[in-house]
Every structure is written in C-alpha cells, then in structure tokens.
Amino acid sequence: MDVSEDIPSASARWTPGRLLAGIRRILGFGVMRASAPLRSNSGQPIRARAWLESAKIEERYQYSQEISLNADVRQVKDPAGEIKLVLPYDGEKYFTRQAHRDVSAARNGGAAPADEALVGFLALNGYEKTDLVGTLGLQNTYGSVPIRIRLPSPPGADEDDQLLADRSACVVSHEYRPEAPKVVPFYIDVELDDSGTADIDFKPDLRLRMSVSLHLPRSQAEGAEAEVSKVFLSWPTHTSLRSLKLLGGGQARLRYNPEQDHEGRKGGLEWSGVPLTLEDAELIAGRARKTESPDDDIVTLSSGWMTLSISKPGELYQRETLGGSVEVTVNRLLSGMDARLFDATGKPCRPRRPGLKLKSTVTTEFSFSLDDAFARRTLRPYQLLYFDEVVPSEMRIADIVTALRNRGFAVRAPHDANPENCRIAAELLHGPDWLRLDIHVSGEQHKTRRERSVQGGMTYRTAVDSGELRIDVYGSLRADCEPVVREINALRRALRERFDRLPARR
C-alpha cells in the first residue's frame, strides 16, 4: 500500500470535516451524485465505485507471565500490526457492475495507469505511536490513505472478463509496527483453594481459580467489547471431563484437546468466549488511575473468576508448575490508533455495507507455581453463631455491622435488608492480603409465654415476642486460617455481650 502524489499536503490540524473535504477534492467529485457517471481525464487515475468485502486493522501483542511468589510479566515479542483489505472481483455485490462501467469508461478516456483503480480511502487518526508516519507518508496526507487495487488486463476476444468472473480477489495488506503500551495491558491471576465460594458445598474438590484483566486507557474503555477468546491449560495427564467442572465464565464450555502442544507436552484443557466487563459501573469516572494525560488514565476490564473444580487432583501434587496460555481480543487498537473507511465518492461507507473492523489480540504464556500456590492457597474456616431468644430485627443487623467495624473491618451491608435473611460482607487488610468474612444472617420470630411467681402464691403469665438468630460466618485468607478464626471468635464474643442484655433474654 503506497501513497501517491495526488494526496494534498496538510497545512492544518486533522479534523473530520477537513479530511472529508480533502478526500472529495482529491476525487474531484464535488457535489456530483454518486449514481452519476464518473469523469476521468486523460492521464488521471481510475476511480471505481466498488465495495470492500472486508477491511480490518489488527494489532498483536505477546507477553509472558510467571505466577509465583517471584511474579514477573514481560514482553516476549515486538508488537505487530496489519492493515488488510479484500475486494473480490465478483461483478455483483462487491466489484459491482457500476464499478465495472467506471473502469471501462476511464480506460476508454485514457486514464493512467490502466492496471490500477482507486476504490476508497482509509482515514487514520492517532497513528503517532506506529511507524505508519514514515512508511505511508501520513504527515503530508491528513492521515488519509488511498485504497488502490490491481486490475486484470482487459479481456480479449472470446475471453472472460476477470473483473466479473468471480474467480479471484484483490488483497491489499500492509504490515506496521505499533509501540508497546506504557502499561502492560494484560494480567492473569491464578490461585488454589479447598472450596469454591462462600456458599460452601462441603465437597472435597480442589478449586483452581483464574481471572483475566485487561487494562485500557479510559478514552478507549467505554463501549469496548472484549473477551477471553481462548484459555489453554496444560494438563498433567489425559483426563476425563467427568472429574472436572468449569464454574463461572458465562457460557464457556470445558473441553480437552489432546493435540495442543505447550513446552513439549501435548494435551490440555480449553475454554473460550468469556466476556470482559468493567469491574465497577463507576470505574471510568471514579476509580481510574489518574495520570498527566487523560489518554493515560487506566481502567480495568475483568473476566471475574473462572473456577475449575477438580474432584481428583492427585496429578497436580506431582507437578511443580502448571503452564498454559490465555488470549484476549478487544475491538480497539492498543496503539491508540483509530480509523474510518470512505468509499470512492469520498463518503463514509454505508451502514449496510461491511464496515471497518479494529482488533487487538493479546496473548500471554503463563507458568503457575503449584508449590507456591499450595503454600498460599486460600483457606476458608467456617463457624455457626446461634443465639436463642434473640428477635431478628434491623437493630440486630446494626449490632453485627457495629461489631465488625469496631474490629476495623470495612463492611458492605445491603440497605433495607430483611433481618430474617440477609448477607453482610466484610474485609480487613491483613499484611499483603485481604481477610474476608461473608456473613449470612437468618432467623425467625415467634411468641413465647413467661411466668413469674411472687410471694403469696400468685403467678403472672405474660406473652412476649421472642425468636432465634442464626449467623453463618465464612472466612477466607491466603495461607493462614488462624487470623480468620480469631476474628470470628472476637465477633462471637462481641455479639454475645450485646445480645445477653436484650429484654427477650431476661
């Protein structure tokens, strides 16, 4: 893809209006209707109103990540980009009869060169972090790139016209090199625990939990469509999927691929199609990491936890590491470049026609240290706190929240919670990790009769409100459960002191 001398020089900053006007001046159409015959003077390039079958710009980034106590993320290959445009010579849908008439009329009018046609323009913006400036001379073209296709020779007697035969296509491609992002755009988190979530099912399965995060500039994150397009996990042995179950990950389905190779080992587990979403609805406005430039503010899209439940984990205990790869795609160019497609008349492509697709693919090979993971796996102790003759109420929920906050916990409790069935989440920073408590409060109210005897043989019977309160506490902390047990015991003592003074218990 080269830039010819018919692109005007830029004398002002690129704007959409200036670009559109420049393209129309280049094409010489002015206000001419698109349905009117194209004029082509002698020695001028051929301009044909054809439609691309596909137009895409893709960037590829490759990293390596070690997941262990000595964690490391590094780039393993230079980023690569490619612009690829495809136009079939079909004589109907893409290289239309109108385009064929344009070529014939231009050739008859002495257009030159006769073996090349201009079918549109690619308008690039934000390309400064690529090498396209020099290779395509974009500094002199308002960022516009003419799309030129090769034309077959005119047919001879009794020969098929190759422009209408629908037996070939023109592929225009150009490779370029984008700069690496300032922030590593991709991060994988993997951990082991002995139970899945706070909703403990008491099964002895080992859970391998993986989450994937994509870091984007705030200017690109809004409206971005990203997904985990492939996860491959090298597995120690050929295994049946009956002993494995994938939890989370939306509609992703687990499968075993015996042919996939990773570091000399064949066979592993695969799944795909897990969407990435913003971690918080207010992340762009409130939680973005502020930097000098708004384009450098970073927000995070996350897959959430993808949990592999392993009922027979014996093979894992024999391995020191577990390897694999994760691929993420997003409809943005991580170099910061944006692009638009214009047809041969200088107008944006019609909505019903195939549009320009932008895509970045980030692939990360990872190595997960099982020794470190087992040593630092998340432990989840559990206790039941039961209080008889305590009436469930909003005041009792407030007592629980106050007791937690007095211990230094940050507490998230639902507003207008049902005191007979509600959940409370609390977390406390413990060293480099978070100590978390997930609390399920349940209970019921009922009436009871109290009897009181006084001197003289008189007995007074009174109907009073009573009930029972059940508090299930699930804790979690990496590597050590003793701090969790201490905090649960402290919560029990604090609540016992408060509830023992309630009238219902007297």
Fold and architecture overview:
This protein is mainly beta and 506 residues long. It has three domains: 16-57 and 83-175, no CATH class; 186-332, no CATH class; 380-505, TATA-Binding Protein, CATH 3.30.310. Helices cover 15% and strands 43% of the residues. It is built from eight helices and 24 strands. It has helices at residues 16-27, 97-108, 132-136, 218-221, 283-287, 370-375, 394-406, 482-499; strands spanning 46-47, 54-67, 72-88, 116-125, 144-150, 169-176, 186-193, 206-217, 226-234, 244-247, 255-262, 265-271, 274-278, 298-302, 306-310, 321-330, 338-343, 356-369, 378-379, 382-388, 410-412, 421-430, 433-454, 458-478. Strands 2, 3, 6, 7, 8, 9, 10, 11, 12, 13, 14, 15, 16 and 18 form a 14-stranded mixed sheet that branches. Strands 19, 20, 21, 22, 23 and 24 form a six-stranded antiparallel sheet that branches. Helix 7 (394-406) crosses helix 8 (482-499). The radius of gyration is 33 Å and the shape is elongated.
Number of helices: 8
The major β-sheet equals: 14 strands, mixed
Radius of gyration: 33 Å
Return the structural class: mainly beta
> What is the end-to-end distance?
88 Å
Which residues sit in consecutive blocks of at least 5 with pLDDT less than 50? 1-14, 25-38, 196-202, 281-292
Number of strands: 24
Helix percent reads 10-25%
Shape: elongated
- Mean of residue pLDDT? 81
Query: What is the count of structural domains?
Result: 3
- Strand fraction band? 35-45%
